[in-house]
Prior knowledge:
This protein is an alpha+beta fold and 109 residues long. It contains 3 helices and 5 strands; from the N terminus they run H-H-E-E-E-E-E-H.
Amino acid sequence: MNKKQNVSSKILTDEELEKLIEEATVDCYDESECLAGFAVMIQDNLEFPFVARVIGEKVTVTGVTEEDERILAECERKGKKYNIDILDIEFTSLVKGSEWIDAYKKWKG
């Protein structure tokens, strides 16, 4: 059985991820500010648009937004727009800057 892997970026070490986390959260006073820091780093570094999968369906990810203490991917499919938790996006190819999502995932625990 051939299982598809979630392809995002090169595999980073824990130390490299910790450096990204530190960069995103520098000077933050609380969790809300840390979340905003990650949202900015993801928006600034991820190469949009890109194709991904959400529950097995292809979507085009066009950006990110913050809502209810989460970072959401702004997705389009068949002319409709959806906001999906960024951690639920399944990458189908290498996407420049996606290491920031890996760092965010590690930070979220």
